[in-house]
Design a protein that fits this description.
- With about 180 residues, this protein is an alpha+beta fold.
- The protein folds into two domains: about 40 residues, GTP Cyclohydrolase I, Chain A, domain 1, CATH 1.10.286.10; about 130 residues, GTP Cyclohydrolase I, domain 2, CATH 3.30.1130.
- The chain is built from seven helices and seven strands.
- Strand 2 and strand 3 form a beta hairpin.
- Keywords: GTP-binding, Hydrolase, Metal-binding, Nucleotide-binding, One-carbon metabolism, Zinc.
- It catalyses: GTP + H2O = 7,8-dihydroneopterin 3'-triphosphate + formate + H(+).
- This is GTP cyclohydrolase 1.
């Protein structure tokens, strides 16, 4: 659970630390806005991962691709954003497709690194569905690289996490990567 008062005080200190007048019209409500934003994020992080076991005969790959997301780099607290692709091969259970989208959003709404985000999504799908295999690919632009440091916008960082037959069967892996590129 988040501590709204700590967020408000922290943002006030941050703004003062960078030389802002926290009583200025455009900024005076910013600490409360930031705290409210994190409260909204916290609410979105929990959801029911609904399963449908009545479709137990379906055994081909299921993919939800181009799932948009926004996250926050834990190193610089700057956004990174992009799209995620999730696939799994059922083993007697399928989920509502929106649950895959919600999984991406829930895991992205916290300070994070893309590599861990990719792994966490794969871990949740694996845990909840116990499928034959899981594949997750994330493509993202990191503002910590675009706005600061190298200051080179437009780059795409790609991470992947594979489980089960996505890892052990080259044909499954190739099919997954081919389908997300279409």
């Amino acid at each position: 659970m988040i501590d709204k008062e700590k967020i408000i005080e922290g943002i006030k200190l941050f703004l003062e630390g960078i030389g802002e007048d926290i009583t200025r019209e455009g900024i005076k409500e910013t600490p409360e806005r930031v705290a409210k934003m994190w409260e909204e994020f916290e609410k979105e992080r929990s959801f029911d991962f609904k399963l449908f076991e009545e479709y137990s005969n379906y055994s081909e790959m299921i993919i939800v691709k181009d799932i948009p997301f926004y996250s926050m780099c834990e190193h610089h607290l700057l956004p990174f954003f992009g799209k995620a692709h999730i696939a799994y091969i059922p083993n007697k259970k399928i989920c509502g497709l929106s649950k895959l989208v919600r999984t991406v959003r829930a895991m992205a709404l916290k300070p994070q690194v893309q590599e861990r985000l990719t792994e966490e999504i794969a871990d949740i799908v694996q845990k909840e569905l116990e499928p034959m295999g899981v594949g997750v690919v994330i493509e993202a632009e990191h503002l910590c690289m675009s706005m600061r440091g190298v200051r080179s916008p437009g780059h795409c960082t790609v991470t992947s996490s594979l489980r089960g037959n996505f890892l052990s069967d080259i044909r499954t892996k190739e099919e997954f990567f081919k389908l997300i590129r279409q």
